[in-house]
Amino acid sequence: MSSTTENRTSGPIPTWVRVPETAAQRDTGEGLAPTTTRRDAQTVEGRDVATGPVLHGVLEAPTTAQMTVSGSESDFAGPHGVTGRGGARFAVLLVHPVGREHVVSLRAVVALSHELAMRGALVLRIALRGTGDSSAAPEDLAAAWAADVQAGLAELAARSPGLPLTAVGLRMGAAALSTALVREAPSAVRPQRVILWEPVGGRAYLRRAAALRRMSLDRETVEADRGTETAGELYSPAQAASLKRLADPARASLPTGWRIHVESDPESAELLYQVSSEFARVPRTTVKAIADELATSVAPRSSGSDDPHGSDGANGDDGARGLDLEPVSVVRSTHQGVDITETLVRTTAGHPGILTEPADATPLPAETAVLMVSAAAEPADGPTGLWTTCARDLAAHGLTVLRSDRPRCGVSTDPLDDDPPVPYEDAAIDAVADDAHWLAGRTGLPVTGVGLCVGAWLLLRTGTGGNLSRVIAFNNIAWRTGTAFYQRVYREIATWDGAPAGLVPDVVPSDSTLSRAKKSARRFLSVSKARVEANAPAWLWHAIGRTGIVDAPSVVLADPAMPPAVDLILGREDLQRFEQLHGPWALSRMKGRITERGGRDGVTVPEILLTPQAAGPLESRASGVVLRSVPELDHGLLSAVARDAVRTILHELLVRTPD
Q1: What is the pLDDT of residues 337-377, one digit of tens each?
Q2: What's the burial of 525, exposed, middle or buried (CB within 10 Å: 0-12/13-18/19+)?
Q3: Is-contact 433 465, C-beta < 8 A?
Q4: Phi first, then psi: what are they for 28, rounded to 5°?
Q5: At a CB cut-off of 8 Å and minimum separation 6, what does 551 contact?
Q6: Residues 471 and 460: beta-carbon distance below 8 Å
Q7: pTM score above 0.85
Q8: What is the pLDDT of residues 608-650, one digit of tens each?
Q9: Quick one: which of 367, 355, 493 has its CA closest to 435?
Q10: Which residues have C-beta within 8 Å of that of residue 486, sequence separation ≥ 6?
Q11: Residue 410 to residues 441, 445, 568, 652: CA-CA distances in angstroms?
Q12: How many other C-beta atoms can be found within 10 angstroms of the C-beta atom of residue 30?
């Protein structure tokens, strides 16, 4: 038993939220019944185990009181066994958007949760099914998302008995709120106040998202009979039809106590949910205004309340309520016909994560555990939920997979950050190494790291320092061993190609001699670097790369700390960049250094081959490094063809098959 004291809020407490459904509700979405809560879950070894469809939720509460924490900190994602009386006055359900908008707007929703908790709210934010780490989406999305909202409200009411309920939905989260509550649902838990933030109807959302997918990704979309493709999502024909039935709340008559909020500045709206995640910004003025509005609009608790959890001030907390903050930490579900579990954990270093593993013993014991690392500063579900799906795929075949959030990412997002964190940093390398050690200790197995872009680079830099036996690196484009260059690049993010206009500060350009000299120097260095890159022989490029001035695969791949086995899997554009940086020369240089026993530093590397259909031709193999060309992969793994290929590749590389 240990205790901690938090200053103003509990911090994020991840939990599963169960969504009970009858067979009729799954088929038709009609007759939504009151949902049962976490107390209806099974209990195994002292833990609540949810079954059936679930939502990934995060709780946050005000607290000025000491919080008692029981259980192992390495086993649970939040304070286990916590009941607090921290002065909560009301409760708020936050409903995230879906698809890429969920990823881009995450920091804004986290900031709103924090501001609400600071003003006395118990907050539960939920991801709708098919989004993030929640269960997969069924065919009738409209009915499912309405049920999700009802489940979230019922869960929130059960955790905060007697408190006034309010709700905020962003984008499609607003449409789901409206669908769930505006229609007749006498048994539904109904909030006093609802704010629909930048709402959009299903038809308009799908049309715009599909158009952006076609314009932004240079990959063919799937055939129409498979459905409608957006960036990171593929909606089946039935799902797309259901999605189109979600009406735009702005076109409907709203109940008393409901309000629509639309950003007055179009650039603010763009930076909230329409840009690449690196460019996303939090609209602080809006966030504080919404929090203030809800905090001042809820009906105060009467001193004569019959609420058994309330008080008349005898506790010393005016208006305090008993809050249930204990998370449901385990969910058991069926994936590909096999029972798997997903457990909310904290690693030794305190990073929140999800451990996905088979629920029962498998015929072929696993030979490795898997650590999946996301790109950029995005959450642990990976490129719009792909890592979540892959983890479930692998667990259904006997593997244990950890997906964890690095500091200031995902669940660990700092609500006070005005800018996304720089993902290329030493602290991130240390975090990945810590989580790899935790996973190895948990499973007793060697660990294989799977990463995309920044995630791949972090794994390569972690290497043997994290006891990684192997790294599967998708679309790595960073080929420097240090972080200084990347830190500088991210500080100048407003100058990137494609940066939205809202990022560029309104500063009158300086006409000083020094300013003009700096601009001339930058132009000269840029032109000079391009000329050297195009004309320098490989050995000279390697020598320059050792100084950290340029990206050089030969320097990174020759680092003694590299893991003994590496699969570099590159899409068309990323392979071209690898070739421009003399990557093939780097592999040929390493090939001449293979020891008699095979592999880097004498470590034997098993022969692993992919079918041509799954991963394209084998480009090169050298001293434990295998380069594979997969032209179908777009850089962010957001096209349906790329996502299908990744699932197939990981199956062929990691899943054991009977001899």
Answers
A1: 999 999 999 999 999 999 999 999 887 889 999 999 999 99
A2: exposed
A3: yes
A4: -120, -25
A5: 477, 478, 479, 480, 545, 581
A6: yes
A7: yes
A8: 333 333 444 444 444 588 888 899 999 999 999 999 999 999 9
A9: 355
A10: 422, 424, 478, 480
A11: 24, 27, 26, 29
A12: 8
Type and span of the H or E element at 609: none
What is the C-alpha to C-alpha distance for residues 637 and 339, in angstroms, rounded to an integer? 27
Say what the pLDDT of residue 498 is.
Answer: 78
What does the pLDDT read at residue 111? 97
**What does the alpha-carbon distance between residue 412 and residue 582 come to, in Å, rounded to a whole number?**
38
Give which of 413, 331, 324, 354 is closest to 75, Cα–Cα: 354
Q: How far is CA 249 from CA 261, 384, 482, 489, 607, in A?
A: 11, 25, 49, 41, 57
| pLDDT tens-digit readout, 492-551 | 888 787 788 877 654 445 556 655 555 555 555 555 566 666 678 999 999 999 999 899
Can you tell me the distance from the alpha carbon of 624 to that of 627, in angstroms, rounded to the nearest whole number? 10
For 428-456, what is each residue's pLDDT tens digit? 999 999 999 999 999 999 999 999 999 99
CA 430 to each of CA 347, 427, 433, 542, 568: distance values in angstroms, whole numbers, following the listed order: 13, 5, 5, 27, 22
Residue recorded with tokens 């709120």: 177
> Alpha helices of 65-196 — where are they, by DSSP H?
99-104, 106-118, 141-159, 172-182
Give the Cα separation of 327 and 73 in Å (integer): 13
In whole angstroms, give the CA distance from residue 409 to residue 376: 9
Confidence of residue 280 (pLDDT cuts 50, 70, 90): very high
Residue carrying structure tokens 């460019």: 279
Q: Are 52 and 333 in contact (CB under 8 A)?
A: yes
Token readout for 360 is: 């029962």
How, if at all, do strands 566-570 and 468-474 pair?
parallel
